[in-house]
Amino acid sequence: MLALLSGCQATKPAPTTSQQAVNTTYVAISHQPRINAIVIHYTVADEQRALALLTGKQVSSHYLIAQHPKGNQSSPEIYQLVPEDQAAWHAGLSAWRGTYNLNKTSIGIELVNKGVIEPSGQHFGQCERYPPQQIGVLIQLVSQIAHRYGIEPENIIGHSDIAPLRKVDPGPCFPWQQLAEHGLGAWPDQKLVNKLLAGRAPDAPVANAVLLPLLKHYGYAISAHATPDEQQQLIRAFQMHFQPENSSGYGDQLTLARLQALLLQYPWQR
Fold it and tell me: Are residues 138 and 106 in the same domain?
């Protein structure tokens, strides 16, 4: 019986030794690199716990950067946990500038950091600062990856930018402006911001109805049915990145001017 059953089993076709030539004369223009973004996260967990989590079955990241050097090291350790040609499970449900589910199109970098320690009312409370050596190592790594894939500054982003209703990392303590000074990430030009303010009080309030269409035009995914709380989370995500001195989720004239400047500096070619 076993012999009879084995005879009924499907057999795999033998590999062919000949190879059909592939014609590469015609090249489509409607394509782009698979990797077009870098997403920065914080771990909340310490280094050893983060390594355990990020090498488990639930989540992963391409890189993890330690907080401080150890022993005789001159800089914090960089761990590569997933090859860059493989998708890491770091982004989850996400969207940025018309791209959805960024696991397949981005490189994820985790920084060992406790993150927001004491959320307080409308504003974030204390958050853990990123050590200069850790940021120095990050700048080197991001520079290499961005050069390798031709990643534009506006696509070097945080988890909170691509999932603003779920995530707040890398938080308001992350030095986005410092990265931008190295050409790694978007940042509003101060002279342009001052021009756009046109003498208006920077802290004068601005309605959500003014900000939300502009945020969507810049690249944030915004539902037309967003609740007031969700609208506040979206504005807060922008502020954590570009206006960390005010991450309340309530927009003001400085929020508006910085957003307008970014739209002029980094237009989204859809």
Answer: yes
What range defines the domain where residue 107 resides? 33-187
For residue range 7-66, what is the model confidence (pLDDT) as tens digits? 445 566 666 666 789 998 998 987 777 899 999 999 999 999 999 999 999 999 999 999
CA 111 to chain centre: 12
Q: Would residue 19 count as lying in a domain? A: no
Alpha helices (H) along 150-227: 159-162, 176-181, 190-197, 208-218
Which H helix or E strand runs over 109?
strand 106-111
Q: Do 179 and 200 lie in a common domain? A: no
Model pTM greater than 0.85? Answer: yes
Length of the chain: 270
Q: CATH number of the domain at 230, please.
A: 1.10.101.10
The single residue of 47, 77, 84, 110 carrying the catalytic annotation is 110
The yes-or-no answer on residue 77 being catalytic is: no
Residues 6+ apart with CB under 8 A from 180: 153, 186, 187
E strand or H helix at 41:
strand 37-42
**Contact between 46 and 112 (Cβ < 8 Å):** yes
